[in-house]
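User: You have something folded?
Assistant:
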Amino acid sequence: MMRAVKKEYSIGIDIGATKMNAVLFDGEKIVFDYMLSTPKDSIEKFMAMLFALIDPLIEKARKNKVRVKGIGLGVAGAVDFKERIVLVSPNLTIIENEKIASQLEIKTGLPVYMDNDANAFIRAEALAGAGKKYHNIYGITIGTGIGGGWWHNGEIYQGVHGGAGEPSVMVVDYQNGLGLEAAYQRLMKNNALNVAEEAYRGDVLAEKAFQELGTLMGIAFANIANILDPEIFVIGGSVVESSDLFLKEARMAMKKFIESPIGKKEITIVKSKLGKHAGAVGAALLVKN
């Protein structure tokens, strides 16, 4: 007689500059989710809020009588994977060089794994979302900032020093010498959601800002495609809800600047399938059996 496989949960947390999203994940679906705002004034308040975020998920697992095997963190910033710290986080500086993972382990008694939030996003989309049928996928998140990650042959490519796959500093506005994120923040006046609201109300300047953003995003996609030649780009983050304002221009510019005739025809841009929970699910998938 075959022995029944005992169910286990993992906790995944997507730590963004404005909100923290946590899920209790059973390996196939989200059992429970919880979201809180991200404190920015002190690391002490940040950790207190992070503990408050996790407590309801642990209580839910306890109520369901299911063991939690670990916690995964997807964090906005450059990660030192050996030390499990965030080296640089432009939009959440209070967490830089802080031992968040170690403090969580002490608090919960569970193993904690850490990755960049964009890597977590593309891991989820590759294994359970829009990229499930593909082997070579590049993901970009567009929200408070811009992040990215490359999924290649079953894993995230991190490079020799852990800094691979980062598109935000790629120069796309040569006239002003701006990288992708700097150009994005300039066009969106550091608040893309407000500019989107203005565009939907018919503001011509806001509409043009998004169209220009689409062109710059398309140039970035083409640059990446010419180097990595992915099968597909998956885009996520809060601004993707307004993708009808810029996705057409992004696709046109990408096709224009891709060198390979086959790539020009076949490489596509699609939206996230897992939506707002993609980063948290990808973090949960960090947890090892």
